[in-house]
Amino acid sequence: MIEITYEFIVGLFIVVGGLLTLAATVGAIRFPDVYTRNHAISKSTTLGVTMILVGTLLYFFLFEEHFNSRLVLAIMFILMTAPISGHLIGRAAYNSGVKLAERTVTDELERDRKKGKQANSL
Amino acid sequence: MFDFVLYITLLCISLAMVGLVYRVIKGPSTPDRVVALDGLGINLVAIIAILSIILRTSAFLDIILLIGILAFIGTVTFAKFLEKGVILERDRDNL
Amino acid sequence: MAFQMLLNFFLAFLWMFLKTSFTPAAFVVGFFWGLVILFIFRSYFPDRFYLHRVVAIIKLFLLFIKELILSNLNVLKHVLKPKMDIKPGIFALPIDLQKDWEIMLLGNLITLTPGTLTVDISDDNKILYIHAVNIDDVKESVDSIKNTFEKAIMEVSR
């Protein structure tokens, strides 16, 4: 009985993680430009993979009584580095001149940069 | 039942990777491809985790950390290359 | 903070040597008694008891997990909607934090809040530029960013 409960918990973590990962890919295919795609991948994939790793950790802890500290390290590492890589790609895309999608409403960064250029040229 | 759930999730992630490969091939700009490659690296981590449960072995768990680190380094390198055109800056005066 | 922590580790090792048992359990017990001793003598240290800061860090981490889940639900909603009616945009957010690592932490947390992603920072470290999936529901979330995250980070660094 308790075995089935454990399997249910681990399975829930893993299935939700897999579905989140799939949803991230749907977002990456459907969204109109780099920045919005970056949203989908850097968030949903992170949480999805984190949940799968937590499920794996629980599985090895509950069934094989083997607490794998390297998995904890991997979870911490992925949680720490995912926003950094998302921000880096976003900045690189903006600075290398990738256009925002046509439905974009405001771009205050471009406005402020133009203002800075005018101030410098004066 | 538990194994069935694992195989379904494996299928989900494989489909996700196929979608990301589509984005890598088609992606209108280079940053699109880099974003998709980053996602591919992280999905690979998930696949290894699930495979190690299916095979009931903890031998692959070390590889998870390794691939996570490699994916991060790859993304940072690509981002730097896109932004500055070089990866390792030699002249320290321009920092 | 570093000095108090070092002292605590020293007390834990002292406990282990006094008990002549070098197991992790003895270390944990020694660490606990060291914590009690540090707590009793807390008014003799120049800065505040370091457990306060540890509690603040744990609170920040829980907040981070909560926002990560909420942001995923938000993006999921936009992804799975059959008709895409998003209005992306970049907006500016003035910040009050000064130290580099505080700004880095805030930027990372914003990247994981509902539908926002840090794109750039101004040269004088005063303004963050944030890309949002849907600019309409961002106007309220700016207030929540300023109230929850900046306050939690200040709690840690105070």
TrEMBL record, chain A:
Major localization listed first in the record, in broad terms: membrane
Recorded GO CC terms: membrane
Key words, A-Z: Antiport, Membrane, Transmembrane, Transmembrane helix, Transport
A Pfam family reported for this protein in Swiss-Prot or TrEMBL: PhaG_MnhG_YufB
Membrane topology note: Multi-pass membrane protein
Transmembrane segments: 6-29, 41-63, 69-89
Location in or out of the cell: Membrane
Keyword Methyltransferase carried by entry: no
InterPro entries: PhaG_MnhG_YufB (IPR005133)
Single annotated GO MF: sodium:proton antiporter activity
Assigned protein family: Belongs to the CPA3 antiporters (TC 2.A.63) subunit G family.
NCBIfam families: CPA3_mnhG_phaG, PRK12674.1-2
Protein name: Multisubunit sodium/proton antiporter, MrpG subunit
Organism expressing this protein natively: Mesobacillus persicus
Classification lineage: Bacteria, Bacillati, Bacillota, Bacilli, Bacillales
Automatic annotation (TrEMBL), chain B:
Compartmental location: Cell membrane
Stored Pfam families: MrpF_PhaF (PF04066)
Keyword Transmembrane set for record: yes
Main subcellular location: membrane
Key word Transmembrane present: yes
Membrane topology: Multi-pass membrane protein
InterPro entries: MrpF/PhaF-like (IPR007208)
TM regions (residue ranges): 6-25, 34-54, 60-82
One annotated Gene Ontology cellular component of this protein: plasma membrane
Record GO terms (molecular function): sodium:proton antiporter activity
Keyword field: Antiport, Cell membrane, Ion transport, Membrane, Transmembrane, Transmembrane helix, Transport
NCBIfam families, per the entry: PRK12600.1 (NF009248)
Family according to the record: Belongs to the CPA3 antiporters (TC 2.A.63) subunit F family.
Protein name stated in the entry: Multisubunit sodium/proton antiporter, MrpF subunit
Lineage per the UniProt record: Bacteria, Bacillati, Bacillota, Bacilli, Bacillales
TrEMBL record, chain C:
Pfam families (alphabetical): MNHE
Localization (cell): Cell membrane
Protein's membrane topology: Multi-pass membrane protein
Name used for this protein in its record: Multisubunit sodium/proton antiporter, MrpE subunit
GO terms for cellular component: plasma membrane
Transmembrane segments: 12-41, 53-76
Keyword line: Antiport, Cell membrane, Membrane, Transmembrane, Transmembrane helix, Transport
Family affiliation: Belongs to the CPA3 antiporters (TC 2.A.63) subunit E family.
Superkingdom of the source species: Bacteria
InterPro entries in the record: Cation_antiport_E (IPR002758)
MF (Gene Ontology): antiporter activity; monoatomic cation transmembrane transporter activity
